[in-house]
Amino acid sequence: MNIIFLGPPGAGKGTQAQKICDALNIPQISTGDILRRAMKEGTETGLKAKSFIDAGQLVPDDVIIDIVKERLAMADCGNGYILDGFPRTVPQAEALDTFATIDTVIELDVADQVLVERLSGRRVCLKCGATYHLSMLNGETKCSKCGEELIQRDDDKAETVLNRLEVYHAQTAPLIGYYEKKGLLKKVDGAQGLDNTFAAIMKELGAKA
Ligand code: AMP
Q1: pLDDT given for residue 207 in this prediction
Q2: Is the Cβ–Cβ distance between 6 and 176 less than 8 Å?
Q3: Is the C-beta atom of 205 inside 6 A of ligand 1?
Q4: Active site residue 157
Q5: What is the arithmetic mean of pLDDT over 34-60?
Q6: How many whole angstroms separate alpha carbon 82 and alpha carbon 17?
Q7: Alpha-carbon gap, residue 149 to 171, rounded angstroms
Q8: Number of domains in the chain
Q9: What would the pLDDT profile of 128-159 be if each residue is shown by its tens digit?
Q10: What is the pTM of this model?
Q11: Number of other CB atoms surrounding residue 29 within 10 Å
Q12: In ligand 1, which atom is closest to the CA atom of 167?
């Protein structure tokens, strides 16, 4: 099954995508994780993306479309995948239609004030992509999955968060209508707690939790 996770930053796309991918045994393709790794490694793509990411803006469509096209051609995507953070603009969605067939789009719906609270307390592992919230960490500073030191993403700092939400509403939210028209959209309340959200997504996918 080829699935898109759509929703604002902080809606839980990454966390839920990881859980669903584990349950369905398919890869999670997070364009944010790919770009952060490229920045950490100092690749050409990473250098190109850095100024956009730091400002809370989207990286140019052509950069991200090429990355996703290449990634989806890899053998592990043959049995399906979850796209987490892509597409984020209508031109990206139109490009995706030329090289992939999407079965379902899960929209995670969360109110803006909840998102700001979630994003400002978020801590991430750059090595394995796991995400945490300060309120769950009890002072722990390392990733419980791989032992790497957790960090606060620069773009999760207060001044950038509001920018990212604005960008979401202006550039990404139109995709809700785009996929609704195609009959692919399934809306899930993303504010009902981790386990209930997971169960609701599995139900929408017709999979057993
Ligand atoms: P994320 O981890 O999904 O919140 O992505 C972090 C940042 O990476 C975003 O704020 C964008 O600057 C960039 N990014 C990730 N995915 C995309 C995309 N599909 N199109 C453009 N920029 C993206």
Answers
A1: 84
A2: yes
A3: no
A4: no
A5: 94
A6: 7
A7: 33
A8: 1
A9: 888 999 999 999 999 999 999 999 998 999 88
A10: 0.91
A11: 24
A12: 10
Structural domain includes residue 7: yes
Q: Is the pLDDT of residue 86 over 80?
A: yes
Residue 47 resides in a domain: no
Residue 69 belongs to a domain: no
122 is catalytic: yes
Which residue among 36, 118, 123, 153 is the active-site one?
153
34 Cα–ligand 1 center, Å: 9
- pLDDT (mean) for 158-181: 95
Is the CB–ligand 1 distance for residue 153 below 6 Å? no
Q: What's the domain range around 13?
A: 2-26+79-110+166-205
As a whole number of angstroms, the distance between CA 8 and CA 6 comes to 7
**Count of C-beta atoms within a 10 Å radius of residue 12:** 24
SS3 string, 15-54, reads: HHHHHHHHHHCCCEEEHHHHHHHHHHHCCHHHHHHHHHHH
Coil, strand, or helix at residue 150?
coil
132 neighbors 118 (Cβ within 8 angstroms)? no
Any ligand 1 atom below 6 A from CB of 190: no
CATH of the domain at 8: 3.40.50.300
37 is catalytic: no
